[in-house]
Amino acid sequence: MSDRKEFRDLATPEAAREAIDSLDLSPAPETVPLENARGRVLSERIDAAIDVPGFDRASMDGYAVRARDTFGADEADPAELDLVGAVHAGATPEVTVEPGTCAEISTGAVMPDGADAVVMVERTDELDGEGGDLNAEGDAPDRIAIRTAVAPGDHVMSAGADIAAGARALGPGTRLTPREIGLLSALGVDEVPVAGTPRVGIVSTGDELVRPGDELDPSRGEIYDVNSTTIAAGVEEAGGEPVLYPHAGDDYDEMERLLRRAADECDLVLSSGSTSASAVDVIYRVIEERGDLLLHGVAVKPGKPMLVGRLDRREDADAPGPSAYIGLPGYPVSALTIFRTFVAPAIREAAGQPEPATATVEGRMAVGERYGEGRMRLMPVGLLDLDDGDRPLAYPVDKGSGATTSLVEADGVVAVDPDTEYLDRGERVSVQLFSPDVRPPTLLGVGEDDPALNRLLDRLESPRYLPVGSREGLRRLRDGVPDAAVVAGPTDREVDAAYLGGWTREWGLVVPGGNPDGVTGLADLVDGDVRFVNRPTDSGLRRSLDDALDDLAADRDASRRDLADRIDGYELTVRAFESPVRKVLAGDADAGLGLRETAERLGCGFVSLGEQSVSVRAAPDRVERDAVAELAGALDDLDDAADGGGKPDLLADLAGYSRNSRNDP
Amino acid sequence: MSDRKEFRDLATPEAAREAIDSLDLSPAPETVPLENARGRVLSERIDAAIDVPGFDRASMDGYAVRARDTFGADEADPAELDLVGAVHAGATPEVTVEPGTCAEISTGAVMPDGADAVVMVERTDELDGEGGDLNAEGDAPDRIAIRTAVAPGDHVMSAGADIAAGARALGPGTRLTPREIGLLSALGVDEVPVAGTPRVGIVSTGDELVRPGDELDPSRGEIYDVNSTTIAAGVEEAGGEPVLYPHAGDDYDEMERLLRRAADECDLVLSSGSTSASAVDVIYRVIEERGDLLLHGVAVKPGKPMLVGRLDRREDADAPGPSAYIGLPGYPVSALTIFRTFVAPAIREAAGQPEPATATVEGRMAVGERYGEGRMRLMPVGLLDLDDGDRPLAYPVDKGSGATTSLVEADGVVAVDPDTEYLDRGERVSVQLFSPDVRPPTLLGVGEDDPALNRLLDRLESPRYLPVGSREGLRRLRDGVPDAAVVAGPTDREVDAAYLGGWTREWGLVVPGGNPDGVTGLADLVDGDVRFVNRPTDSGLRRSLDDALDDLAADRDASRRDLADRIDGYELTVRAFESPVRKVLAGDADAGLGLRETAERLGCGFVSLGEQSVSVRAAPDRVERDAVAELAGALDDLDDAADGGGKPDLLADLAGYSRNSRNDP
Fold this sequence. Notes:
The structure is a homodimer of 665-residue chains. The first copy, chain A, is of the alpha/beta class and 665 residues long. Chains A, B: Residues 201-349 form the MoaB/Mog domain. Chains A, B: Keywords: Molybdenum cofactor biosynthesis.
């Protein structure tokens, strides 16, 4: 391991920004058809090449007149004019309006020669040849009574009055939204010069990576490649065009070949994906030998292993000079954080795109947070908008850098200064969202995982639920961050909370189909040769199991510990309600702690050990919130159905589920 | 005209919304590849199908150990373990860690059998066979000194710890941003079920419409079709797929054929484009006879002629039932306003997309505005953010419904209640932006149009400039809305303003190349047979012309009026600085009021009548604003270049332009 690269002399975040600013990743401007121009940015000014309108244009349906002929006309004493013809939109006028005459005209039609104003149809009457009112349909009138006076120019838009040829229409740097596209259409522009789209090559590295959709072999340590797709989506969002290259392993020659190919074809090359130091080393050497390494290692957490440099291009590559290069950290949250903080602004700049107004929100710390590592920390935080007129709550999310779920459990990052040792509860913080499209959830729930709960969550608008288990859920509810906790089974914790509703689920031992070991209860685990798989202590299922074990121990005059020690796999805990069942299905265990629902759904046998109540409890000071009321409303379904005598829709087809028999747990 | 449809009994805006809500324009959900899923919305919940990670995974580079072997180890008294092999990321472990041994392990690698923790490499030393430090590179060590104790599970992420198979990953209705795409990648998902994209057919009507890029014949009253492209871009922005149909004329059969084809192929059909009552009539009849008209005419201004209904589909069309239909007003600003207010929300709803946070901004009225027509008014307003911590200023923009420039001079609309008769200056208003991507300008300028000014504006970030002429510009500056006014030539108005800089331009008579009429000055216009074309009285050029005419009148002991009456075309005014020159070029005039710059650039002759100063003046209370400082900074270029003796870059190649000789106009 002696050739591993240590990053000493870490650069400051400012130095990293300067290094990135010194890179040239701007593509040449290009011309695109107007129908593909939405969201693009003009690379040069556009002046009107024509007058709009291109002619004196009637802006009302009515009669084109010489204004002088209407002077003095009013309701009591209309002017009468001979009707000499009609002009319709899209047609060349074939009449001339001489003194004493008028022509019917449609909105948008060309003003006929002689006419200088339009009288709107509502202020006129059609007359027959004798001057009487003309009412019968179909007869063409000869004369028109004009019941109002108009001035020259009335209801006429003169040529160029909207915009005249030679006038500045849109400036360089204008982002094209529907309205600018409208103006360009009016000018007859069907293709526009826009800032080019930076091509961003993404080279993901690491022998362990597999593309989503391909077959995964976990025994070889394979994992799906998260960074390539995440960063590609981020590149697109920032106005770049992502180009995904095949995975590079940790081999120098392969890496060199891929990086150079990407440099030839792209404005910016990002490497990403590997978390192992040896892969990072290989990239490092390629950049040093085949390009120019500007800095390696930045004093931010995460992001220490970030690289900034240039990669040489082939002599005959399309673009001159070297391509820009940035190496991202391997862990997904770290990679997205560094991308968001350092890379996306550079891509936007190159694409001429402004920073979206929604990229940053102001929040307030939901809890105090201690820090003091002497380098800047980009702290992932989740947000919760309480709709109370105050800034949303921000709470740190730290599941470890390797957790991909942090991507969706956090909404963005807070840049904590190296000098900041403590963030107070309530302190104002600026949260850089992972993406301008991120919308913080309206409801935060924590606690037990449960299939009926999943259905309940599906009925709410953008909830966030952290399946931390019943015990941890109650702890967090007490600490004041979440709106609600979901608790299964008995609990010691006394937490002040409002009961919103709940249900009962049957739990027990999940065994292979047909129950080949003939398991009948807990005693078989203690006394027999059964490989068991358990749930963690935070889980409500585990608590019910331990209570049952206590009962068995009392029967036998033993301690729970004694019995537990005799269960093969009692200490082997797996994460979610389906996990033990999957171990059983895979043949890795003979029995697992689980639900009848899961056992039946996945085709396993089930030995019932009891029922436990699942309750949804809200923090008392959040009960009035709209989102909590929505949650309570969704739970009402349980009572509505029960009143009608049927099984609540929420629990339909869930084996072993029933409405909670108690009103309060 | 007796068959024209009058819209009586207008529906309320609420009734219009209800009618639109009653339409079904939701497409069926679809499945898209993950790489195309950004911005789409999940149509169903996605549960994890695999454990992530799929194996117990080292989360540090170091050595895999049995934790028990390290108990008691510290810096002073390291534990020494035999090194039995190595495990790399992406490889199946080929070693077993027996008591007293360890294996080198890379971040991300599978934990070998027997090991239950990882010691990070920084807390270890490599030893040679004799237990001494091993420094020489290349020699493989036999033993490792472990300088710290670790607990079981340290630096190991257990299988499923990130997310376990069966757990709820993302709920229905989740919008897919880079982070959700990251989580889906981790789960190996390569295609996702999403809400479908509503297909929105756009049928534009009116004989006068020509597609941008095609040849225009203004003598026939042809204009470019603005609504089709504008609305198509708006549809796309709202999450729909626009489908443009060929133009329909005002012919019933053609219109029927097009609308029915669009209905067969789309979820929603929009008709748009025509401003003439007869075209609207034809559509109206088609909907009544071939569908179901729910309402016609809504009590909003603009939008009276809005239609809502359904259009029958062919029996064998892809989708069952009728398609939704909405008829938009013909004028572009009206069409976009009605689209934004009534149609975009329905498309977003059908696409499962939330209303963007940036769709509405709160502003304050820059001026008072009287209103009282008894129906809701959607008042177009421009915005100006003064960066003073207060809400941006909102000022009404009313150039008449037919003006396409209103599209870019206004930023959105304020819905003014029928009961509101007056909006006070400073009153808080909610502005629905024309598009969530609209960014209000940072600087608002008004006044004279000028080619050097156009260059100056190009150097600023998102300025808005309204070329209303010098006189009107000063009036608006005095009224307090804009930041700056650009004034050319002499002026009577005394307006308190700060001089930021300026230049001088040569003006006179533009004549055809070679000056065929031998024009030498104003006297030739008065005395000769020369067809002249003038600029409006608000223009600084016109003011200089009138002053010169005053001088000539004084010489002749006549009045200016006398002389002006003798100029053929004195009353014929055209809009922009290039407009008179274009009239001359087109042969419609023999001389036009203009600039030497324009004459030379467009290849005309020029008879100089003098120079006039152009000055940029800021409102005194805005001088400190960043955007105004940026404007002043761009003007400094004039002085910088002059100090060096050269022609300022801003004026380079502009014939007849020079640096302002006066420091203050």
